[in-house]
Structure to design on (306 residues):
């Protein structure tokens, strides 16, 4: 009898062990997996401040009762340029996505491609615009909370934040920021580094945003180009005078207000003006390719992304 009891006890213990092992190693359903990284975004804010945000998806919340708001379960991990490193829980928000500390002393809001932070009811990180990831060769970033965009550019380009395009004539300036090629890019060629570059410009109070607004005249009117699901209104213009050649290509983004566009401006000179063999023709395709890469990093904040 004693042997039977011991054998039964061993069997019971084995069964319990197997069941426990199955429970322990059973894979959780995907709806129960917590802290799943869904995106990582770098923001550039006013006064040079920056935010690195990692957004996480939380466990699936229970179904809300009728007329109840769904309970958010996400979180965000923030690294701020002032040295703070903290994790906030998502809270209920009427607009955008809201994260806060337990005592609500620090609140992080994000909406579309923009964000801001308040600390003790004071906005300490404002005008923050998301940055595109560096595709390679564009380590620098420029962001304008006023114009509502960010863009990346090469380290050796010269930035002119007070730039105004004046090609439309007197009293018709277009505001923007220009990224001018470095002198070494033009050295030994007929390319001018004085004003060749890429600019991001805004045309206010426009209901029909198109590239033609940014040029005094166009070569062949405007055309529509769709690139990576983004539609552009594109127009070109060219001119010459006193041995100088000017070429412009404007990529405007329809349905933005203010109307926003990226302008390629290429200034070159006549090779015939130089002693043969001293200057070579600049590589236009290489230059255009770099301008394209810069343009593709343009990100619009909600005010412009209508």
């Amino acid at each position: 009898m004693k042997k039977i009891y011991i054998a039964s006890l061993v069997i019971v213990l084995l069964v319990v062990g197997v069941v426990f092992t199955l429970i322990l190693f059973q894979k959780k359903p995907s709806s129960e997996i917590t802290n799943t990284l869904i995106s990582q975004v770098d923001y550039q804010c006013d006064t040079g401040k920056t935010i690195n945000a990692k957004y996480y998806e939380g466990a699936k919340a229970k179904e809300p009762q009728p007329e109840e708001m769904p309970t958010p379960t996400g979180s965000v991990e923030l690294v701020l340029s002032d040295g703070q490193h903290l994790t906030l829980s998502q809270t209920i928000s009427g607009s955008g996505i809201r994260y806060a500390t337990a005592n609500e002393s620090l609140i992080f809001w994000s909406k579309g491609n923009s964000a801001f932070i308040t600390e003790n009811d004071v906005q300490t990180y404002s005008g923050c615009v998301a940055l595109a990831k560096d595709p390679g060769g564009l380590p620098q970033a420029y962001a304008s909370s006023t114009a509502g965009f960010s863009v990346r550019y090469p380290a050796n380009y010269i930035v002119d934040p007070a730039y105004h395009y004046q090609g439309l004539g007197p009293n018709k300036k277009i505001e923007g920021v220009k990224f001018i090629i470095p002198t070494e890019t033009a050295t030994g060629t007929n390319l001018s580094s004085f004003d060749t570059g890429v600019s991001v410009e805004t045309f206010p109070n426009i209901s029909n945003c198109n590239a033609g607004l940014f040029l005094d005249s166009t070569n062949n009117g405007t055309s529509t180009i769709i690139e990576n699901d983004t539609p552009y209104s594109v127009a070109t213009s060219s001119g010459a005078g006193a041995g100088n050649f000017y070429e412009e290509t404007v990529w405007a983004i329809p349905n933005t207000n203010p109307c926003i566009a990226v302008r390629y401006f290429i200034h070159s000179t006549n090779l015939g003006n130089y002693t043969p063999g001293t200057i070579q023709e600049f590589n236009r395709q290489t230059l255009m390719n770099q301008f394209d890469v810069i343009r593709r990093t343009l990100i619009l904040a909600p005010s412009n992304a209508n």
About this structure: Residues 243 and 270 are 5 Å apart (CA to CA).
